[in-house]
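Why do we bother with holo predictions? Because pocket geometry can differ from the apo form. Keep that in mind while you read this record for glycyl-adenosine-5'-phosphate.
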Amino acid sequence: MAQQDDVFKKIISHAKEYGFVFPSSEIYDGLSAVYDYGQNGVELKNNIKRYWWDAMTLLHDNIVGIDSAIFMHPTIWKASGHVDAFNDPLIDNRDSKKRYRADVLIEDQIAKIDDKIEKEVAKARKRFGETFDEAMFRQTNGRVLEYQAKREALHQRFSDAMNAGNLDELRQIIIDEEIVCPISGTKNWTEVRQFNLMFKTEMGSTADGAMTVYLRPETAQGIFVNYLNVQKTGRMRIPFGIAQIGKAFRNEIVARQFIFRMREFEQMEMQFFVRPGQEMEWFKYWKEWRLSWHKALGLGDEKYRYHDHEKLAHYANAATDIEFQMPFGFKEVEGIHSRTNFDLSQHEKFSGKKIQYFDPELNESYTPYVIETSIGVDRMFLSVLCSSYEEQQLENGETRVVLHLPAALAPVKCAVLPLVRKDGLPEKAREIVDDLKFDFTTHYEEKDAIGRRYRRQDAIGTPFCITVDHQTLEDNTVTLRHRDSMQQERVAIADLHRLIHDQVSLPSLLRKINK
Ligand code: GAP
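The structure, written out:
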């Protein structure tokens, strides 16, 4: 675990050093849980968004996109349930004056028991070597069984308290488990209180009677309230979907793990409107399709798992998360929810407008059911970054840090490097840049020895380096260096476009979905 923590710290500092992610307002000592994306980060982020957008809107002829405003009528959040129920339970430590999420303190306690189990398994694996039967060990080892029983009892008590909204019981669990504040080390806890996560602000001048509005905590409601507009103007027939990418804001109490949990973040959400009674087959479709979208990136199939929700929100009849193996464990990256007709019905009730679909095949009107796929851009970014980062020991004893980014997502696709800064090589290299730049993000670099320039490109995940040398002037060939293998091949300048395009184009990635 400590080793994983170290890797994660290295990834965070790498992200800063190479212009991917900066702490927000850094020269003013930062702003907690808010981050800025730098020159390479924004390209990677845009490529992720483009991959999602094209997968939704190009590969499905019944999905269209919208871009709704962040500010919305405040009654929307009353109708959606966010004003009354979008809360986290919080608790303060009186000595450190630090505020925590009560549920996170307990989840961390459960994770500690999980760690103990994993340590027992790792020790046994080392002791028994190849003959180790892990499943058998987990089922029979006394200490593991003891930890397992403790874990299950705690988990059950915690789930019951959360489901019942029993704040006293949450506090009692923290007391009984002897959980201490990581800062003060004491158990001097306040009561647990509910805390609404929405940011409020005022619209209009106070003299005119300003209206309280919220920064949206999800993009989904912008889709629901535009359902009729899109269905009618686009002449959409059910089943159809509406996709949106945009900022969302949550006043997270526990903001940590870098860009995993932020106060300002971005979501890519799609609401798929279906006939009532057909929602389960569409839920299954989207659950599988979304996983294959992730897997097409080639980050490693074993890094994903589903987490099916046992306890469902009152409006949902099925829900699952796609979790990704981050350096700090398997964590939710995307949620897929069957939300029934809850949201549209609520907006019908609160707005007084009829929100129905006339189904010409059935010759009847109904409120459509909805399957939602909802993924955080920043969490997706983090999963791509973490799984791409490698510190590689080379045969010559050197270490190189390389980002094995999926080529279609890489911020820079190719770098053109004149071997020396004279003899007409820079001019020739510039000619190549001027040709490639229309199709690929292309860097030109002439400073430092060629080896150092390769390392810099490896560190930002550039799939190809093109080196221009004296032979180039004679026969119009260059060396093409591949990032992952570091292999170099001599190729004609005329072939560069095709060779690079084959590897980095977004359509080639989109074609891998469901393959
Ligand atoms: N409309 C449904 C919805 O918003 P959610 O599970 O609350 O569902 C969906 O959020 C996704 O948004 C999550 O799976 C996660 O990727 C991302 N997300 C949620 N809160 C976040 C935060 N504070 N920081 C970064 N990403 C977040």
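The chain has a mean pLDDT of 95.
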